[in-house]
Amino acid sequence: MAELVGGALLSAFLKVLFDRMASREFVDFLMGRKPSDDLLCELTNVLLSVGAVLEDAEDKQVTNSSVKKWLDELKDAVYDAEDVLDEIATKALQSKLDAEFGTNIASKVRNCIQTFPFFKKIEVRIKGVLWRLKNLASQQYVLGLVQASTVGGKPSETTSLVDDSEIFGRDDDKDEIINKLLPDDASDNQIAVIAIVGMGGLGKSTLAQLVYNDKKVQKHFDLVAWVCVSEEFDMFKLTKTILEAVAPSSTSNIQDPNQLQLQLKEKLMGKKFLLVLDDVWNRNYTECEILSNPFKSGAQGSRIILTTRDVDVASAMRAFEIHHLKELQEEDCWKLFARHAFMHDANTYMHSEFEELGRQIVDKCKGLPLAIKTIGALLRSKALDVSEWDKVLNSDIWSLSNHEEIQILPALRLSYKHLLSHIKQCFAYCSIFPKDYSFKKDELVLLWMAEGLLHETENKTMEEIGSDYFVTLVSRSLFQKSSEDEFNFVMHDLTNDLAKFVSGEFTFRLEVDRRSHRNVNKTRHVSYARNVFENFQKFEALQEATQLRTFFGIRIVNTLFLHN
């Protein structure tokens, strides 16, 4: 079976199944046992079929509810398949031990007799899983799922234009960056790079636009150019785009990358330029070095501003200044919300029911400008109706079930999309944590290990791999350092929502989810708040959860303080 795995695009949780089926003990146990062996070969082929489109499904689930449902059904079927394989692996080990220690003929005959009903039972279960997987495989074409190599779409682009009247709370950030732009200090032959880093939805591009359009900045530089890089990093296309921004109509016939770089170098020669590279994802140091070579011909005082969600990108571009963008303050959040939610002067609605409801809604946006603007626009479309505002305040929108209405999720989606499948699994596992829960790196890595999400390699231990995954999630702004303890980390509430969304029905947070009377038949991971005096009645919500893999008690410090 091992050769079937080669070259296939598999998500991490599928790879675990293939590794198990390819193990020596497993293969030896099934050797010559038909139809069990044939059924498992058929299971392998079906898993390969759905595994090939899994990455596309993971990307599309965020915006397509049908794909999300398909993916959840697939995960449930794969979990069932893993349970069956676990039973076979356990039986294989038992038979191996019996063969080693039961030397007489009678024990061998007894072992053979005992395994016969086991295989009959297992075959029925495998057939059930196969039927489900085949049904799901037949739906992938209807859903438009394709293999990852053919997946691609035109990314949303940004421009340098911005409406200053819609921006609040960024004056200090703007001044700080401008103060780094204007001095003409020499730093050998390197162009000074300033990186604006933060999670999706914070307004990194907006801040860069503010700086770019400032009159002092425009006057200070001989040449200014704005280029939206986005997720697709093609060296030739990007260099050509930069050259077109610097010198329009100068690249039409150039097809050689070297000639393109030489012409860009010539156009920048001796000029003090400002180049904004917006939404950069590429972390490859060598590619960043090659891209930067023509910039060195610019005059002293030239600057590059890049926006990114990943601090590793800033390092690859040799940023001398990294500006970590923070969430908006409470009053700035309200001003931004009022600008989008009210058709007329917001002062008209001060000290009214609308302000009371509006401030509660704004609080749910957790300081993210994109979330605030989107929900403000949504309320604006519903007119001034208190009942409508109340519905929004108490809507499922905040648990992402209505994700197409609030566009903060697409802002985080790219951060999630660019994770390796193994790291996606580790991130989704974090949905068992309640919001605002702080955790330590080493403790979380141990939880990942216990769940079987980490697999050691020839060069690295599981702990080292888990540490690498953790650092990646921090660098993508999906994990953030706690403001209370430098050794603790937290997830932003909207990031927590994203983890909860991608984990689907398989995670159940007892204190939150039991209120919704949600079906727990598919639940595999449960967390609950661990108190000094437990009320065991709360666990009645889990009576139907018969396939649990995780039962995690979390000590909520603040809750304990309140009880005291």
TrEMBL record:
NB-ARC domain residues: 171-345
The organism's place on the tree of life at top rank: Eukaryota
UniProt keyword ATP-binding present: yes
Pfam family, one: WHD_DRP
InterPro entries: Apaf_helical, NB-ARC, P-loop_NTPase, Rx_N, WH-like_DNA-bd_sf, WHD_DRP
UniProt cross-references to Gene3D superfamilies, sorted A to Z: 1.20.5.4130, Helical domain of apoptotic protease-activating factors, P-loop containing nucleotide triphosphate hydrolases, Winged helix-like DNA-binding domain superfamily/Winged helix DNA-binding domain
Domain Disease resistance protein winged helix: 432-499
UniProt GO BP: defense response
Start and end residues of each Disease resistance N-terminal domain: 10-100
Glycosyltransferase keyword on record: no
One GO MF term: ATP binding
Keywords: ATP-binding, Nucleotide-binding, Plant defense, Repeat
Descriptive protein name: Disease resistance RPP13-like protein 1
Organism: Juglans regia
